[in-house]
Design brief:
The protein has helices at 36-40, 179-185, 319-332, 359-371, 498-518, 537-543, and strands at residues 52-64, 70-75, 88-94, 105-115, 127-139, 148-149, 190-200, 208-211, 236-241, 258-270, 274-279, 284-286, 302-313, 338-344, 378-380, 398-403, 409-410, 424-427, 430-433, 438-439, 454-460, 463-471, 523-529, 563-565, 568-570, 573-577, 585-588, 605-610. The protein is mainly beta. The strands form 6 sheets. The chain has a 6-stranded mixed beta sheet with strand order 15-16-14-13-28-27, with helices on one face. A hairpin with a 7-residue loop joins β7 (190-200) and β8. α3 packs across α4 (359-371) and α5 runs parallel beside α6. The longest helix is centred in the C-terminal third of the chain and has 21 residues, at 498-518. The two termini are 34 Å apart. Mean pLDDT is 94; it is low at 1-30.
Length: 612
């Protein structure tokens, strides 16, 4: 996906202190010996922000002694009676190891700061910290305050207060009403989960997601479904570890696995996913043996069209990636007749050297399919203008069409290039493409810094089939503005990237209408990574006037997902069909998104259309 705010740029367990950490101007006098709950206050911003505080008492509950954001968590063992005020705080020491141990009783002096992970412009909430700190030890081996248990009863189902899209920073915390307020009221404190199910697999950064409520929108395979903008699944919590990896390896878990027993540690806030339990005690990993799926083989009279985002594929990718993608296409997808492929990079991958051709990339992929026992796929694609289509810098990602020439034939029509728009023309009273393959409205502003759709004309058992490969603009923004984070301070979060995708959807819908104006029964399949949900305005634009429909919607609601982000199972990839397709059979083939061992971050899907 280039999409959906992919959290892969920086190791979340090693955040660096941003220069944009916000502090109010310091008053002349230091605050007189406050306790931690006085510093944290009853909103998201400390009432003492910018002030120097002295002799703040507490017990060390966790130590981060690695990376560029070192420090420790301090918690007051004598809490007040206000559930809105946190009793914990992070003491930031930068690149210097703090030299303290869990159980040390300290008196800490320092400056109260509000730090925005990723920078204030990223839209996240701030983390109240003590910086420029010094301390004295007044005891060792002290018992730790009891961890607050996160359960379905203690974490409210409503996610966040609404502020009309504005900031919720100044609103009084209501931890009994909203999940985000509950987590904020526990910022820096010891929290615990017990016998929890994994809803987001272990990443390469040694973290995973769990749910504290296994009954909250469960999927059949153990995940948590993100089914609407108003149901954000507040029971999700990210887990990383403060334990040395060599002494306590982080579990390699898939969706549906469990962390048995107690996992506990201080509750942090970071850029990639928000509230994170930094474990000082890790539960035991229970492997529930999640299996990769296989779809059935299409019958002789069925056309199988699949879509697969291959995630920045180029000759620079590991050979194992090509082998596993081929295995996915041949074994798990049963060798579809046509495949729309997204995120095909040029022949030098991320090297920004002006190369735009992808002949070697496509050759390596198709050769790998043959070696895996699959068909000798042919392909069609159009090289983009250098650096015009977004994605990884230098990679020039584009969409492509794979097809099995023993099952379908491609109708080649000259004239398609990076900038010339393909048109629907009439040929013998039937619709045809002016160029095949051809790009749809490639110079329209809707496709700025985004991949352009690729239309191709095929023949299957005597019938014309129009297939359009798509990769709409990313939720992460890329060269444009990305969406505000779900767990951020602006509520409800603005979907800045959405208007562009809506316009893209309108263009694609109009193109399909042009085809159907000449033949209402024309067979059109629009597949790819649309970077948006089935309930989104983008998909509404695509389906407008019933030009296209979503066979996905005939699946049970809790099975409509093929991507996992921040512990939410969701749908970004779609195969839309025209009414001329009848009632196709749809299958999302779960082989990637739920697994720690991924070939891509997307699951492929396939639609089977019976020849009428």
């Amino acid at each position: 996906m280039a999409a959906a705010l992919t959290a892969a740029a920086v190791c979340a367990t090693l955040p660096a202190l941003s220069a944009s950490a916000a502090t109010a101007p310091a008053p002349a006098a230091a605050a007189a010996h406050p306790r931690i709950h006085d510093i944290q206050g009853t909103t998201r911003i400390s009432p003492l922000a910018g002030q120097h505080v002295s002799e703040v008492p507490g017990v060390v509950t966790g130590v981060r002694d690695f990376g560029s954001s070192r420090g420790f968590w301090l918690q007051d063992p004598r809490p007040d009676r206000d559930p809105a005020t946190s009793e914990g705080i992070f003491v930031f020491t930068g690149r210097e190891s703090p030299g303290v141990a869990i159980g040390d009783a300290l008196r800490v002096s320092g400056q109260v700061s509000e730090y925005y992970p990723g920078g204030e412009q990223a839209g996240g909430q701030s983390l109240t910290e003590l910086t420029r700190a010094d301390w004295r030890t007044v005891g060792t081996g002290r018992p730790l305050p009891r961890a607050f248990r996160l359960t379905p009863r203690s974490v409210p189902k409503p996610y966040a207060p609404r502020a009309g899209g504005g900031s919720i920073e100044d609103l009084a915390l209501r931890p009994g009403r909203y999940a985000l307020d509950r987590y904020e009221s526990l910022e820096g404190m010891r929290v615990a989960v017990r016998d929890v199910r994994v809803t987001g697999p272990t990443s390469r950064y040694h973290d995973l997601w769990v749910t504290t409520d296994r009954h909250q929108n469960p999927t059949p395979r153990g995940g948590t479904l993100y089914g609407s903008y108003d149901d954000q699944n507040g029971a999700r919590v990210k887990v990383s570890s403060l334990l040395p990896l060599d002494a306590r390896p982080f579990p390699r878990a898939n969706v549906g696995d469990e962390l048995r027993g107690t996992t506990e540690g201080p509750l942090d806030y970071e850029q990639f996913g928000g509230y994170t339990l930094r474990a000082t005690t890790l539960g035991t990993h229970r492997d529930n043996q999640l299996e990769r799926e296989r779809t059935r083989k299409q019958r002789a009279d069925e056309l199988a069209v699949a879509t697969y985002n291959v995630e920045n594929l180029s000759p620079a990718s590991e050979p194992a990636k090509f082998r596993r993608l081929a295995e996915g296409l041949v074994t798990h997808l049963s060798s579809p007749d046509i495949v729309t492929v997204e995120e095909v990079q040029d022949d030098t991958g991320p090297q920004d050297d002006g190369t735009v051709g992808a002949e070697e990339t496509m050759t390596l992929l198709t050769e790998a399919v043959e070696k895996a026992g699959g068909p000798s796929y042919a392909w069609r694609q159009i090289d983009p203008v250098d650096k015009a289509d977004g994605g990884q810098p230098g990679g020039n990602i584009r969409v492509a069409l794979l097809y099995n020439p023993k099952r379908v034939s491609f109708v080649d029509r000259p004239g398609g290039d990076a900038t010339t728009p393909v048109k629907v023309v009439e040929e013998n009273g039937r619709p045809a493409l002016s160029a095949s393959p051809g790009r749809i409205a490639p110079q329209d502003e809707a496709w700025r810094a985004s991949r352009k759709p690729l239309a191709g004309e095929f023949r299957f058992r005597g019938r014309t089939v129009f297939v359009i490969a798509n990769h709409f603009s990313s939720k992460g923004g890329g060269d444009l503005d990305g969406d505000q984070p779900l767990e951020g301070r602006f509520q409800p979060p603005a979907r800045h990237s959405e208007p562009q995708r809506i316009e893209q959807g309108k263009l694609l819908n109009a193109f399909v209408r042009d085809i159907r104006a000449l033949d209402p029964d024309a067979l059109v399949v629009a597949g790819g990574d649309f970077n948006d949900f089935s309930f989104s305005p983008t998909l509404d634009a695509l389906r407008s006037g019933k030009a296209l429909t979503s066979p996905l919607e005939r699946l049970p609601a809790n099975e409509r997902y093929g991507y996992v982000f921040n512990g939410n199972s969701q749908t970004l990839d779609h195969l839309l069909t025209s009414p001329g397709a009848g009632r196709p059979e749809y299958d999302i083939v779960h082989i990637n998104a739920e697994f720690a061992d991924q070939t891509s971050d997307h699951d492929p899907s396939v639609v089977r259309i019976r020849r009428r």
